[in-house]
Amino acid sequence: MKIITICGSLKFKEEMIKISEEMELKGNCVLPVIYPTKADKDAYTEEEHQMLDKMHKEKIKLSDAILVVDVNGYIGSSTKSEIEFAKELGKEIIYYHDLV
Q: Model pTM greater than 0.85?
């Protein structure tokens, strides 16, 4: 069993939900992305954005690996920074495109 944090663009929310379920059914503990509940993502304050980012990095610290949901090879700037953070911590990096 691995503890895996899901990383990727929120435009791939459906894929993230699906891959999270698949990885858990394979016996892994998955730490998902928090999906915004406010209709307009600009409705979040800067402090809230920073808190969500900080908590996501805490998940990466707890994890054995991150799983990058890179549909059609897309990796945005936030996800790139999460990959670099995980590399600095010596975490395994798994790419969705390698699993499908």
A: yes
